[in-house]
Amino acid sequence: MPQIRLNDCLFHYTDQGSGPPLLLLHGLGSSERDWEYQVPALTEHYRVLCLDSRGHGQTEKGGNGYSIPLFAADCLAFIQAMELEKPHIVGLSMGGMIAFQLATNSPETPASLTIVNSAPEVIPRRPAEYWMAGKRLFFAHILPMRAIASGLGKMLFPKPDQQHHRDTFQARWCENDRRSYLASLRAIVGWGVSAQLDRIVCPVLVVSADQDYTPVEQKRNYVSRLGDARLEVIADSRHATPVDQPEAFNSLLLDFLQQVDATRTLTHEIDPA
């Protein structure tokens, strides 16, 4: 398996296909395996790279000093080390937060962003939000990983015919390094770049499941504050949209990416400089 050392951490990644570069960023407590239903379709058109964030998957574990800005700095270092010119970036949940951070820090880097079931901030502002954040942190610190995996698996994949997804999710979740998982969770709560959204200059596709943790309306609100952005809602889906609705998600993503590429090609032909 390919590995690369960046920012004093040894990262695992995959690199498949050929064409314009496309970087996929997974969610909290997961790995590049988040994208197993996307990679075969995407590699027909793109060079697809998946990076395990620090503390996740087969990347080096630790748990000290984790933050979304650090994860974004890791991604930027990876893009530079791999010499990826204007990559498309797709982020699921925590991966979407990392993508937002990277695009506000380095607006010239991405060709496009696709944000899946995510947001530009996780800052509690109302009593109910403080309660939910506190409850999640509390139970994450006291419950065994297996219990967390069981509860999340049933929430993400509640249907009887989703037993395979539940079993797979629970088995993989239990592979997490507990210290790294908790450090990553703490990195999310209180993070935000909502005040810097005007720095994002690339096209943005926001994908929301109709039954995601956060309401579609919240995503509609932040999409309205972005420039070249649109929101698409996938029906009969929960937080793990690329897994529970892969065909709909893949079609939506490929259409968006190819529209962006066609526009970039046309712009270059009109103004090569």
Automatic annotation (TrEMBL):
Keywords: Hydrolase. GO terms for molecular function: hydrolase activity. Residues 22-250 form the AB hydrolase-1 domain. InterPro entries: AB_hydrolase_1, AB_hydrolase_fold, AB_hydrolase_sf. Coiled coil: none annotated. Pfam families: Abhydrolase_6. This is Alpha/beta fold hydrolase. It comes from Pseudomonas neustonica.
